[in-house]
Amino acid sequence: MVKENFEKTLWVCVSDVFEMKMIAEKIVKSRGGKKDNYLQLDAVQNELRKTLNGKKYLLVLDDVWNEDPMKWSRLKNMLIGGAKGSKILLTTHSDVMAEVSGSVHQHKLGDLSEEKTWTLFEKMAFGCNKESENSNLVEIGKEIVRNCGGVPLAIRSVGSLQCLKRMEDEWIYLKNKDLSSITQGGNNVMAILRSSYNHLPQNLKICVEYCSLYPKDFKIVRFDLITMWIAQGFIQATTNNRDKVEDLTNLMHLDFGGYSSLEDMPVGIGQLTSLWTLTSFILSKESCISGQASDKLNELKGFIDLRIILSIKFIGLVCAIGERTLIGVVKRMEHLRQLSVEFEYGNKKDDDTG
What percent helix, strand, coil does the chain show, rounded to 5? Predict the structure, then answer.
């Protein structure tokens, strides 16, 4: 429906930093093109005009907090030039912002109905489990829901807290708890999130705290974040026989340090071209003897983003590595600071670090 009525649909998360050049860059980027590093505001303004000129567009400015009328006036001047019928949609928690922006129509989201409130809580607290048939928990849950005041974030948060709790006294405790501080929305959203955080196990609290290292409004890739948690030792990696190397092409950190019995690299490891960290690259005795060491080493050529240190270990006497010398393999690894090469012949080890 939206795409049928607008030539361009653009979405930008503004947040509390209302800076003209930054917003303009985000709008240009949201059109689907690559992000250029514009040095001057004039340059990005010209690119923005090209994006909007003569086109009927829908621009969503999400999570806006600016209450300065002058800044709004400057932004509006940057957005002129679109075709008739172009629309700008703002989302905010601030009533003042809604007024100073000069909005033509305001729509305030109300509380959820009693029916929708219970449906959401039931989904979060019970999921597909049969515990929802426990009439006592259902009755206690409905009283908890009434204390949430129809606020979706509060319902999701409180419902998720009860997800693993099946004892009635645990539910009664929450029912008797004063939830008024987390049902007002606005500035009390943090209280809702804090309530969820306080009920997490200690190891998962560390995972949440780790996310504070990312800048505000940063788009976090779930797979990369989980990989970083594993690399930091916050959670344990789990594998099964269905895992495939091609499913891990975005992996950035791989540590074989805890696998002392490992004697060869997994098949297809060369596909993991996003790796930043690879502690060890091991060539088996069979590879060394058969002359396949060259082919194995060639898989390293795609790891151009490896950083800090790489340890290459040959288990067995190397017959030949042909023209693919170690220098040729690692010469494109511009971020690599140390290369360690180890040759193991039976009980004898030779090490060369440079």
Answer: 45, 15, 40
> In 31-76, which ranges are E strands?
57-64
Boundaries of every domain in the chain? 2-100, 114-199, 245-353
CA distances from 223 to 10, 197, 200 (A): 26, 21, 21
Q: How far apart are CA 300 and CA 283, in angstroms?
A: 12
Q: Is the pTM of this model over 0.70?
A: no
* Among candidate residues 157, 159, 149, the one with its CA nearest the CA of residue 126: 159
Cα 351 vs. chain centroid, distance in angstroms? Answer: 40
Cα–Cα dist 189/315, whole Å: 57
- Which neighbouring-strand residues pair with 253? 277
User: Which class is domain 2-100?
Assistant: alpha beta
The C-alpha angle with vertex 318 and arms to 313 and 322, in degrees rounded to 5, equals 105
Contact between 18 and 66 (Cβ < 8 Å): yes
127 touches 163 (CB < 8 A):
yes
Q: What is the pLDDT of residues 184-200, one digit of tens each?
A: 444 455 665 676 677 67
**pLDDT over 50 at 298, yes or no:** yes
Is the CB of residue 188 less than 8 Å from the CB of residue 177?
Answer: no
Residue 349 host element (H or E): strand 348-353
Distance of CA 146 to CAs 140, 149, 219, 274, Å? 10, 6, 34, 49
- The string of pLDDT tens digits covering residues 149-193 is 788 878 887 887 777 677 788 788 778 876 655 544 444 556 656
Q: Is 160 exposed, middle or buried (0-12, 13-18, 19+ CB in 10 A)?
A: middle
DSSP 8-class letter at 303: -
Residue of 149, 137, 147, 145 lying closest to 120 (CA atoms):
145
Residue 106 in tokens: 């305001």
What is d(CA 303, CA 47) in angstroms, rounded to the nearest whole number? 35
Specify which residues 281 forms β-bridges with. 312
Measuring CA to CA, which residue among 162, 132, 167 is closest to residue 144? 162
Beta bridge partners of 294: none
Distance CA 72, CA 91 (A): 14
